[in-house]
Amino acid sequence: MAIDKFTTVSSTVVPLPVENVDTDQIIPARFLKATTRDGFGDNLFRDWRYDKSNQPIINFVLNNAKYSGKILAAGKNFGSGSSREHAAWAIHDYGFKVVVSSFFADIFKNNALNNGVLPVQVSSGFLAKIFMEVEADPKTELEISLENQKITIKKTGESESFEINSYKKECLINGFDDIDYLLSIKDKIIAFEENRKF
Amino acid sequence: MGNTLFDKIWDAHVVTQIEGGPSVVYIDRHLVHEVTSPQAFAGLDKRGIKAFRPQNTVATPDHNVPTVDQHIQIKDILSRTQIEKLTENTKNHGINHYGLGHPYNGIVHVIGPELGLTQPAMTIVCGDSHTSTHGAFGSVAFGIGTSEVEMVLATQCIMQPKPKKMRINVEGKLGKGVTAKDVILYIISKISASGGTGYFIEYAGSAFRNLSMEGRMTVCNMSIEMGARGGLIAPDEVTFEYVKGREFAPKGEEWEKKLAYWKTLKTDQDAKFDLELNYSAADIEPQITYGTNPGMGLGITQSIPAIDSIEESNKITFEKALKYMGFEAGSPMIGKKVDYVFVGSCTNGRIEDLRAFASFVKGKKKAKDVVAWIVPGSRQVEKQALAEGIDQTLKAAGFELRQPGCSACLAMNDDKVPEGLYAVSTSNRNFEGRQGPGARTLLASPLTAAAAAITGKVTDPRDFL
Predict the structure, then answer these.
(1) Is the interface score ipTM higher than 0.85?
(2) Quick one: which of A62, B80, B108, B113 is 20 to 30 A from A161 by CA?
(3) How many CB pairs under 8 A join A and B?
């Protein structure tokens, strides 16, 4: 089953300069009771976004009309904690295609890639620049080219390259998913089972 | 150059290596619960395929289950639906399922070891980050996302790059009142909530060798809290003794063959780690957390750091955490008010934890204003606790033993700590809202939780020992 094909993304940015954003903040546990993958975007950052009486908390960035876009930029160690893929689903469902941070938790990174959301890891200096530019002008756009593995602040032209393994890169560009690949090598898996010593 | 224990197990499970990409890794044991699996089963159904090796997977509901009145229908419709979905999905795919009320039901990471499903040298995954628990047996065990749950169901494999390797050595004898939980909280406070990201950890040294299997599970369980994929401990006689004779452990000739192999599983003398850290057991006192990630912890007799001592880049996060917790920078931990005490979870919900708590509170009385939830990790732990009279000891001290489940660790059921109140918890995460919206969590050992339950304040358990 295909995931969305990832092409170049050019967009304004939603800045969240908080470190250690864990998956309990991205999607609190009480919203994990669904049995489908849909609709998690409504509860993305639920307890930072809405108060007890479900009114939007004005000073949270998702409620600030100045900021919008397909790119979320967040402080280091984004997506730590629980392995819940619901966090990646919520981010995808809300409309983000890219998350930029100076450091990602491993499980979140995998989950994001498996759902066509690109985690872009940049240096802490470059991340600080993004936050600075976006704060000065919320219309600041970033361009993320997966093909060239390059992220650019369009206004200033400053750019940085980012890492992604060539297999995952190809999967994202073509919209392939891992299960299709694994199903295609089933003979190898069976041979492994038959030949293993322990 | 030699290999690490992790290398030996990982490499033995690589089906194929994709150039410039991940390894295809074969999975021996797959544990499934109700929260992270429904979308994976839906994926299989959509593809029109059945589970490839259903006998390698075991399922049980744990996250959503109530911890009282488990014999009657679950009130919360969404929770009930998710649990019913697990029953239906496992039936459709021929997977062993220990439903609510089954004598083997419990938290996945508690039942795996107690049923002998967890064995040395295995690769073990589950759609839950605390799968790292099983590393205590010298297995490569880690949490995965739901897409990966679907991969394992469909092909018994996942695709992951091989992590880097770290060894953490702790030598020496633990002091009085210092437990496995304190050791791991101490390590996390030293290397931070992200210090282990990208690594698989081997815990080595006499402090770990001298731990029981329960203690080793507590340590490995929290590997993920420093960001590590997992953590393991080389199997030894303590491990083999624990596994032997359990329901799904190898028997007879098979046991002898496996045992001979397991005994070879050690890191070679000349193996190289990407990072090696050394700590001394003598430096570790009972630990407690003060902030909103497990790295924000300290010795119980210490004070929260002063704002000046925090690095500039970390100040916003530090101040945000203290504001959430309602704590002053520089203030001591001892004496802070405690409203709730939670003993349980895949970190500290095993029989040894209940024994430690019960022996501490024996002959004492629960502080009047403290609400305490004592939750066994599984039906078998509950049964054992009853057989040992732990429930009676608890009752005499003003506590009650609840029914098994994940409970207040993540508050998906009704066990929620109210907004603004303080809970000393033996679980694994003190994130904002983890134990209920607005709840404030202080992570600690069962002994420290017991001391807080008796005094109603953060208390050094050593004062009573």
Answers:
(1) yes
(2) A62
(3) 190
